Amino acid sequence: MARTVIRGGTVVTATETTSADVLIDGEKIVAIAAHDVHDWTTGADRVIDAAGKYVIPGAIDIHTHFELPFGGTFVSDNFESGTRAAAYGGTTTIVDFAVQVKGERIMDGFETWMRKAEGNCAIDYGFHMIVGDVNDESLKEMAIIVGDGVTSFKLFMAYPGVLYSDDGEIYRAMQQAAENGTTIMMHAENGIIIDVLREQAVGRGETDPKYHTTTRPPATESEAVHRAIALAELAGVPLYVVHMSAKEGVHELTLARDRGLNVFGETCPQYLFLNWEDHVSAPGFEGAKYVCSTPIRPRSEGHQEYLWNALARDDLQIVSTDHAGFFYDDDETMGRQKRLGEGNFTLIPNGLPGVEERLNVMYQGGVIEGRISLNRWVEVCSTAPAKMFGMYPAKGTIAVGSDADIVVYDPEASFTYSAETIHMNVDYSAYDGMEINGKPDTVLSRGKVVVENDRYVGRKGDGRYLKRGPSQLLR
Ligand code: URP
Ligand code: ZN
Ligand code: ZN
User: Fold this and answer.
1) Smallest Cα–Cα separation from 14: which of 405, 380, 445, 302?
2) What pLDDT does residue 1 have?
3) Which pTM was predicted?
4) How much is the average pLDDT of 426-437?
5) Given 127, 146, 182, 193, which is the most exposed site by the fewest CB atoms within 10 A?
C-alpha cells in the first residue's frame, strides 16, 4: 500500500480552514495533523509539497452527460475524454445520467450506460437514472435499481415527445421514489408552452440562436418549479431541481425551503458567468455555442446576481455543470453538431461543455471576486453534492477514513481559458478569454496521482463505479 504525505498546505473543507499535513495510506486518508507534528515523510513513498497551496476535497460534478444521444447527434465527450478533462479541472467524481427511453426497460438503459463507462473512466463515477417512460414495469424497476446504487431519478417537464413526462406520470414516479427513499431530480421547464412559443417564433422568421432564450421566458421555468414542488410535497418525496437559471424559479424554491420542505436546487457556471446579450445574441451563428436548457438569460433581468446571492445563502445548494458539449464547427468524427441548427434555432443541440472549468471559474468568480467564501466554494463544488447524492463522507471532505480524492490547489497559478487550454473533446470553451487566478496543481483519485504539472498521469479504467446511498442532506 503506497503511503503519500501532503505536507505544508492549508486544508480547506466546507467548515474549516486549517494548516495541516495529510497522510494517505493506499486509497484512504489515515491521519491529519498540524504541520510537522509527525515525521510522516520518513518511509513515505511520495511527499507532495503543498506549501502556499490549498488542500481540498476533489470536486464532485453530479450533473454530466457523456456519450448521450441528444438533439440529432451525440454529446461529443465519451467517458474517457470527459472524465480525463474532469480530472484536469480538479473533479474526482462525476455522476452521469443513464437513460431509459420510451419502450425500453430501466435496467436496459442502466446496463447500456454501465457498458459505456466501464473500463473507460479516469475518476470514480455513478449514475442517476432518467426515467423517460413511466409505466407499471418501470415503477417496479425504480425500486430494484436502488440495489445497484442508483438512488436518484430524473424526470423532464420539458422536451415533449422525447423525454417529457406529464403530471400524472411525474406524480406516480414521485410516489414510487418516496416509497424507496430516493430523490427526484427535475428538469423544470413547461415544455408544452415552450413548444408553442418556438413554433410561433419560427413562423415569424425568428430563427437565430438568440430566440432560444426568448422562447423560454422565466415564467416557463418558475411555473414548472412551482408545480414540481407542489407535486413533490403531495407525494412526500425529496426534490432536486437541476440547472436553475431564473430568479423567479429560485424564489419558488426558497419559499418552499422556508416552509421546511426537502427541496434543493443547483445552478451551473454558465448561468453565473454568461448572458444573453453578449453570448446567446452574439453575431452570426456564434450564439449557438451558448444554447442550453434552461437558457442563459438576459443580464438586464438581474438573474446572475440573484443566483450568486442564493448560492451564498444556501437557497441554492450545488453548482454542477450539466456538461453536454457539442462541436461548434463540423468535426471529422462527430460530424455536424451545433451547426445542425443553422437557419433554425430549434434544431441546435442543447448543451454546453464545462466539466473541466467548473472548479476554476467558481474559484475566480466566487472566491477571488468575493461572492462566496473559500469554504462555501468547497461546499457547493464537493461537499453538498456528496451529501445530496449519498456519497458522504467517503467523498466530499478531507477526513480520516475518507477516500483520498484530493486536489492540491495553487492560488498563485494563473492562465486564460481558450479552445487551446482545455482537454474536453470540443472546439471551444464557454469561458473563452476568462482569466483564472488559481489552478489544480496535483489531483489525487483514491490516493493515486492522476494529474500533476499540467499532465494527466492516470489511466483510463482507474475510475470505479460508485454505489450511492440515500440523500444525506434531507431535513
Ligand atoms: O441543454 C441541456 N441542458 N442539455 C442537456 C440535457 C439536459 O436537459 O440536462
Ligand atoms: Zn435537463
Ligand atoms: Zn443535464
Assistant:
1) 380
2) 75
3) 0.98
4) 98
5) 193
